[in-house]
Amino acid sequence: QVDLGESGGGLVQAGDSLRLSCAFYGQTFSLYVMGWFRQAPGKERELVAQITPGSSTYETDSVKGRFTLSRDNAKNTVYLQMNSLKPEDTAIYYCAAKHRSSSIFEYWGQGTQVTVSP
């Protein structure tokens, strides 16, 4: 069983930065792909970024150059650094994890709200 605990959301103005953290508990962190998803009101949940156990990253086009995903295997934590935030980044952000052998994200955090005002 894996448990995930997110923190770092909040209300900011456009152009500001936030860093989301996700703490991982229960299994061997270094064997898991970690991801951040977001869901805005009335929209489907989308993958924002993911990072492999070897720290290869993927970011969706809308956040490339602004968001950076990193992981600290010693602290069992993944970080999403969000810079130059835009109102359209407003959403609930969810941390997720999948074993490196899995094709789907199996474990989810409770979500953290990010609100960006114009």
Q: Can you describe this structure?
A:
The protein has 118 residues and is mainly beta. It contains no helices and 11 strands. The model has no long low-confidence stretch (mean pLDDT 97). The strands form 2 sheets. Strands 2, 4, 5, 6, 9, 10 and 11 form a 7-stranded mixed β-sheet that branches.
Q: Which features does this protein show?
A:
118 residues, mainly beta, seven-stranded mixed β-sheet, four-stranded antiparallel β-sheet, 0% helix, 53% strand, globular
Rounded Rg: 13 Å
Number of beta-strand segments: 11
Instruction: Estimate the global geometry from the Cα principal axes.
Output: globular
Overall mean pLDDT score? 97
Fraction in beta strands:
over 45%
Low-confidence stretches: none
Separate helix tally: 0
Structural class: mainly beta
> Largest sheet at a glance?
7 strands, mixed
**Helical percent range?**
under 10%
Distance between the termini: 40 Å
- Order of helices and strands, N to C? EEEEEEEEEEE
Short précis:
By secondary structure, this protein is mainly beta.
SSE topology sketch:
Layout: E1 3-7, E2 10-13, E3 18-25, E4 32-39, E5 46-51, E6 57-59, E7 67-72, E8 77-82, E9 91-99, E10 107-108, E11 112-117
Parallel strand pairs: 2-11
Antiparallel strand pairs: 1-3, 3-8, 4-5, 4-9, 5-6, 7-8, 9-10, 9-11
